[in-house]
Amino acid sequence: MIIADIISFVFQVASIFVPIVITLSIVTFSAWFLCGWLGAYPKSWVAENSNCFVFSLMFAISVVVIACPCALGLATPTVVMVATGIGANHGVLVKGGDALERAQNVNYVVFDKTGKLTQGKAIVTAAKVFPGMDLGDFLTLVASAEASSEHPLAKAILDYALHFHFFGKLPSSKDGIEQRKDK
Prior knowledge:
This protein is mainly α. The protein folds into 2 domains: 1-109, no CATH class; 110-170, no CATH class. The chain contains 6 helices and no strands. The chain has helices at residues 5-38, 52-66, 70-89, 97-102, 135-146, 152-164. Helix 1 runs antiparallel to helix 2 (52-66), helix 1 (5-38) packs antiparallel against helix 3 and helix 5 packs antiparallel against helix 6 (152-164). It starts with a helix and ends in a 19-residue tail after the last helix.
């Protein structure tokens, strides 16, 4: 899988940022603990059933939580996933984040409104199977796997399989599975 440049950049930033945040958290804990041990702040700042260790630990944890780079590491791939999902809902299939990122450099797009260049849908042009495997058996398997899917590529696979081979009743995803309803 090719990782988009922005995701690689975020991971590089996080690889530097995380040790800095952890170090800062340790320094924060040490400073507050030392100040509490030396009595540099009033005892009224510490909760009644607590001590300077717990008080210092709360500050250290706060530093980690507030400066956590998890937001960067989680948000960036999520944005790429949502963008490719929205594209798919509108009939635009994007192979991955890297392709989406490269799309910003596209200067020209050719639309085939009349269908002279394309059919306007994905098609399978050929299928290759492992030696010793029957193409008909293979197409039966993939056709039964894709029969209940609405995905454009699944439809293309199913169309290819149905065009080149006659099938009886395709097995559904529930054939051979006993259904039970328990309370």
